[in-house]
Amino acid sequence: MCTLDTEEKILDAAIVLFSQKGYTAVTTKEIAKKAGVSEMTLFRHFYNKRNLFERSFDKFVFSPKWLALFESFEWDLERDLTKIGSSYQDLLYKNRKLILMHLKNKESNPHFEAMIYKFPNEFKKLLSRYFEEMRNKGVIAENPETLAISFLTTNFGLFITSLTMNKLTFETDIQTCITNYVKIFTKGIACNQ
């Protein structure tokens, strides 16, 4: 069996079990069994559970495509924020298993928490820089960091609502919600010209 295939099977099994039970409750024995490999094979590839989690996190969360988004702005507030909101929702949906794992984790683990919050913190910095540039262009007057936090929390709330309800209230699709939210948000923060 190819090493990459084995690693993929183990990573896929790990993320499923982590999301179902939480990091602490899952054993390496369970992960190995679900992946169809021996526990020794799991350790040969990943050394320990923490390394396995970190590799799972890197595989499922970070994407160079995401960073490229912040290099392709049109500098049109509504269009850029719609693109950012849609991409953020896609990223959250693709990583819903990790997010569910975090929500199910009952124990506090500083290392785990640092990893899970790494992406939102980096995203907030990128979004703050975008809003700072828009403020420099005279498009907005508000505090860039406050705007970034507001935008992120609203979008995360939209994601959690759709995740826990399996569909949005009133049968509204997520893209319609993003479009409407961005219109309201941009109208509220744009400088009157």
UniProtKB/TrEMBL annotation:
Q: Which residues form the HTH tetR-type domain?
A: 4-64
DNA-binding region range list? 27-46
Which Pfam family, any one of them, does this sequence belong to?
A: TetR_N
This protein's source sits in the domain of life called Bacteria
InterPro entries assigned: Homeodomain-like_sf, HTH-type_TetR-like_transc_reg, HTH_TetR, Tet_transcr_reg_TetR-rel_C_sf
Protein's UniProt keywords contain DNA-binding: yes
Q: Which UniProt keywords apply?
A: DNA-binding
Instruction: Give one GO term, molecular function aspect.
Output: transcription cis-regulatory region binding
> What is the recorded name of this protein?
Transcriptional regulator
**Organism source for this protein?**
Desulfosporosinus orientis (strain ATCC 19365 / DSM 765 / NCIMB 8382 / VKM B-1628 / Singapore I)
